[in-house]
Design goal:
Length: 255
């Protein structure tokens, strides 16, 4: 059997090095730490940058882990990277919409809330960061389901829970909802997890357009929806604008 491939070992060592400490290192620092020639380290970094595994800071020239690692699934950096890239846009979305904003990422067949901005008023609110939400009963979850067949498969292993009479609990209904999300580019919920509450969400994309998370607003149905029950056109525009902005920061140039 052939032995290990040295270039891959070195690339892995660079990724591990960037995952520690400050997370931003120059070519010289990386070369010295790994006892590599500076030219060798630079060549590997350029290759990793080309596939989105590392990014170079324009101001300092130093390298850090890239957004493409968000999709690897095993990365303990996923949540932190997504949150750090989206936090400013989430704050702006809350200010523009006047509603609570949540950012979600897939975790073990559910939606992990990685960031939550309170509705900008004086009402009593509970922080949802770290909460696991159902995929099929939330706007955030529907977005993730629509673009990840493995998540859809996870719902087939058991009967989806009915939280209210509006919750989608059949495979046919969920499949139809996912198709609508892909066609429209956004998802909505209306009393499907909690009666009287609604939400709107849009996909956050990384390199190559891969969906790595979702961002959305949530609140009382009368504020989130039009009188006919459809999502507010104004809020939908704000959510989609925020999703595109975060996606651009993550390297999804098409969005």
């Amino acid at each position: 059997m052939p032995g290990p491939i040295q270039s891959i070992e070195r690339a892995a060592a660079i990724l591990r090095l960037l995952a520690r400490g400050s997370g931003r290192l120059g070519v010289g620092e990386i070369a010295e730490s790994l006892e590599l020639a500076k030219g060798t380290a630079h060549g590997i970094l350029r290759t990793l940058q080309g596939v989105g595994f590392v990014e170079q800071d324009r101001d300092t020239g130093k390298y850090q882990l890239g957004a493409a690692l968000l999709h690897l699934g095993t990365s303990y950096l996923d949540v932190n990277e997504l949150r750090s890239r989206a936090i400013n846009w989430a704050d702006a979305l809350a200010a523009r919409s006047g509603e609570a904003v949540r950012i979600g990422a897939p975790l073990e067949g559910r939606v992990l809330v990685v960031h939550h901005v309170f509705r900008p008023d004086d009402s009593l609110q509970t922080l949802d960061v770290g909460t696991l939400l159902p995929l099929h009963a939330t706007a955030l979850g529907k977005v993730l389901l629509a673009y990840d067949t493995t998540l859809v498969a996870s719902l087939r292993t058991g009967e989806p829970e009915a939280y209210t009479r509006r919750t989608l609990v059949t495979q046919t209904a969920i499949k139809r909802a996912c198709a609508k999300v892909r066609e429209a580019g956004w998802a909505a919920e209306n009393g499907e997890m909690i009666s009287g509450e609604a939400g709107i969400a849009a996909p956050i994309r990384g390199h190559g357009g891969i969906v790595v998370g979702a961002i959305g607003v949530s609140g009382a149905v009368e504020r989130i929806c039009e009188p006919d029950g459809s999502p507010s056109t104004r809020l939908l525009g704000h959510v989609r604008d925020a999703a595109r902005a975060v996606s651009r920061d993550l390297g999804a140039s098409r969005w």
